[in-house]
Write a structure and sequence with these properties.
48% helix; three-stranded antiparallel beta sheet; single chain; globular; mainly alpha; 275 residues; 3 strands
């Protein structure tokens, strides 16, 4: 009498899609708070003098600097670290999405394999990809491609410029026309004046007698995602201000939310952080 074939054991893994959002979200919050802290501190500091601290045991000689040159050096250093953290967070979200995509294709595994051994090749493949290749592969697997994906390649270039060239645009940073182009999504707030869009800026006073695009009196505020463009020539300093960085941090958070949402669109329930 033949014995009935044994049913193959099943391993069920539940993917937590919050893991896609988390790396970029943590990096955005941390880097934004640190940049705000440093910039606030510099507004009240006398940057014409070398900073002193009674707890510092060793003193180092350095050339005399003006307040302007010291501020520029400090800002480049701060942005270098902040961009590094932001882009590491964006990459972490991409790697997690890639990992989920590859894992979801797996149908059978050896019965004697450990969970760590099962997952290790997926993590390695994700970490071995360059940023543009990783972005391209994740985008190609989504039913709807990520919007503004090219902008994040330009942010990666800005990171490299800060990290390797102290924020001075070099030959490796420029395109064929001799300039480095920085693009990042931002939330544009605007109203209409005489039928024309007028972007809102901090501290702006609105005239309630303005007519909106339909000719009605009063001010109605609109918003939409827009793309900011900055351009720098060879040898120029990659100069950004606090408002620029805030918009770039928003862009990185928006990227992770969009990535998680697009992944959800083909895989199921939204992560709790987006409900």
């Amino acid at each position: 009498m033949e014995s009935e074939p044994k049913e193959r054991p099943k391993l069920q893994l539940q993917l937590n899609l919050d893991a896609i959002l988390a790396p970029a979200h943590i990096a955005t919050v941390t880097s934004s708070e640190v940049v705000d802290l440093f910039f606030n501190a510099m507004t009240s500091a006398d940057l014409s003098k070398k900073p002193e601290n009674d707890a510092t045991r060793y003193k180092f000689k350095s050339p005399e600097q003006s307040a302007e040159s010291r501020r520029a050096a400090f800002e480049s250093w701060i942005f270098s670290k902040a961009f590094q953290d932001l882009m590491r967070g964006v990459r972490g979200s991409l790697e997690q999405a890639y990992f989920f995509q590859e894992l979801s294709k797996t149908k059978e595994v050896k019965s004697d394999i450990t969970l760590d051994d099962l997952l290790a090749p997926f993590y390695k493949r994700a970490s071995d990809l360059s940023f543009p290749d990783l972005l391209e592969k994740v985008n190609a697997s989504l039913k709807e491609p990520l919007i503004f994906s090219d902008a994040f390649n330009s942010l990666q270039k800005a990171r490299n410029c800060f990290e390797h060239r102290a924020g001075i645009v070099g030959k490796k940073d420029i395109s064929a026309d001799g300039s480095m182009k920085l693009h990042f999504p931002t939330l544009k707030m605007f109203h209409y004046r005489g039928g024309q869009e007028v972007e809102l800026v901090a501290g702006q006073i609105l005239d309630t007698h303005d007519a909106d695009k339909d000719g009605e009196r009063g001010v109605q505020i609109f918003s939409r995602l827009d793309l900011r463009h900055r351009e720098f020539r060879l040898g120029e300093r990659l100069s950004l201000d606090l408002a620029d960085f805030n918009q770039i941090a928003f862009a990185c958070h928006f990227f992770a939310v969009e990535l998680a949402n697009k992944f959800v669109g083909q895989n199921g329930e939204a992560p709790s952080a987006m409900r």
